[in-house]
Amino acid sequence: MSVSSMASVQRVGAKQIDVFSPFDGRLVGSVPCLDASAVPGLLERARIGVRESAAMPRHLRARILEEAARRVELESAAFAILIVAEAGKTLRQAEKEVKRCVNTLKLSAEEARRNAGEVIPFEAYEGSESRQGWFTREPLGLIVAITPYNDPLNLVAHKLGPAIAGGNAVILKPSELAPLSALKLVECLVDAGLPPSVVTTATGGVDLGKALVELREVRMVSFTGGFTTGESIARSAGLKKLAMDLGGNAPVLVLEDCDLEPTVASCVSGAFWAAGQNCIGTQRILVHCSIYEDFRERFVSQTRALVLGDPNQRATDVGPMITEQAARRTEQWVNEALAEGALLLCGHHRQAGSYSPTVLELVSHNSQIWQQEVFAPVVILESFDHLDDAVALANAAEYSLHAGLFTRDLSKALKLARQIEAGGVMINDSSDYRFDAMPFGGSKYGSLGREGVRFAYEDMTQPKVVCINEIRQA
Ligand code: NAD
Asked: In DSSP terms, which residues pair with 451 in a beta bridge?
């Protein structure tokens, strides 16, 4: 599929980005490779978008988002095939992502309709009894949205949906590794009636991203991606709003009274969904010593049963990693951990960009693979004696998105939910649970803002107060 005719701004003679399948290396499509020199043209178009978007009444924004949701749903199969082709997710995982995208767009339509502002109780402040008023939620103006490769459709919808609901214009820079689903989503929005200038797609690499972030006219940069990129954006953005959805290193605590069978199944899924390339993927599983051996045996056996291979096949559980380079980096981190004393329980076979689901134990807490986000199909098991030690280990990471815990004891669960430092604590679920309407984001280092449609929408709008002073005759 060539997407060069899609709603992106192109330059005559511009270079192309070729998008290859992570599984078999075939060419999936190509998009223009814009660089910083394209930015003035992009900005000119986006300025029109700012005016057009703000002029759309809320009912129209909502109708367009609903109609786009309908079109994505109608084209579910094509979207899923495209996600598999460009990102290497398995067909089942891609289908789930498409469903979530439909929901994200519908939720955005609801925000456009309902979340317009509030009455301000001026009379609650002594001396203001003669005043009445309200605040409305106004657009910010121009938002730059930058997205990663791993959920190439729904993470884009999480930026475009709330931004459009709020009456903003967007310059969207999708991942250069997997930009095609994003462009197809923009096509659906335009076919649904969105004025094309409201979303300007800008396909390119790091230099383009940097130049967009630096633009003075941009009111907000909404970024999802890695820490290094987030730090670079924060350094160059200047005075504008930043939303940072960065990485994780998710712990899951397994207590002695858990229901072992569903716990193991949930942890295996949490660790290896999307080949572990998942910001809330389970990375460290801390298991009470009394059930550790039983848990380990079942966990390794279920991991070995996972089908690694062609993501187009419905039977496949784990597809390839995004690039061979990413798989090589994973292999290297595991080799380092093994050299530092870790024990390999299964996996650690690489073939080109495919890396088999890998389970480690006895991993040094100084290893990169313990301390940093692995973002790969690798998980660490560790046993604990005392719950307080497990909480300390869970909280030892510098940054955190989600955590999970398994127990039948509600009091323990609620206490742990308070103690664990994370943006979300999933009880009797692995860290890998997300519903698109809930507030979603990180805790500790690097976390700025929340996604989840209502929360992103509120971040992407600004309150404007109108206050009426009733002149009362003496
Ligand atoms: P990445 O940071 O390498 O790239 C993300 C995007 O940033 C790409 O579009 C890239 O071109 C752009 N970019 C790179 N350098 C830039 C710069 N200096 N200025 C502006 N833009 C720049 O991330 P990735 O490898 O595509 O994605 C994986 C990362 O994303 C992981 O760390 C993962 O945890 C994180 N992630 C977070 C969430 C979340 O919601 N918290 C969701 C998915 C992925």
From this structure: 440
Residue nearest (by alpha carbon) to ligand 1 atom 21: 209
- Considering the candidates 151, 245, 432, 459, report the single residue annotated as catalytic: 245
Q: Is 209 in the pocket of ligand 1 (CB under 6 A)?
A: yes
Atom of ligand 1 nearest to the CA of 245: 41
Predicted confidence (pLDDT) per residue in 101-156, tens digit: 999 999 999 999 999 999 999 999 999 999 999 999 999 999 999 999 999 999 99
**Atom 20 of ligand 1, nearest CA residue:** 209
Whether 13 has a pLDDT exceeding 90, the answer reads: no
Report the largest interatomic distance among the alpha carbons of the chain, rounded to a whole angstrom.
86
Kindly give the distance from the C-alpha atom of residue 148 to the centroid of ligand 1, in angstroms, as a whole number.
Answer: 4
Domains of the chain: 16-246+446-465 (3.40.605.10), 250-427 (3.40.309.10)
Whether 33 is a known active-site residue: answer no
Distance CA 254, CA 252 (A): 7
Closest by CA position to 255, among listed 418, 362, 391, 359? 391
- Centre of ligand 1 from the C-alpha of residue 225, in Å: 2
409: annotated active-site residue: no
pLDDT digits 0-9 by tens, 58-78 = 999 999 999 999 999 999 999
Q: Alpha-carbon dihedral of residues 159, 163, 169, 171, nearest 10 degrees?
A: -10
- Report d(CA 414, CA 22) in Å as an integer: 42
d(CA 173, CA 212): 9
Residue whose CA lies nearest to ligand 1 atom number 42: 279
| 245, 368, 446 from 226: Cα distances, Å | 8, 16, 10
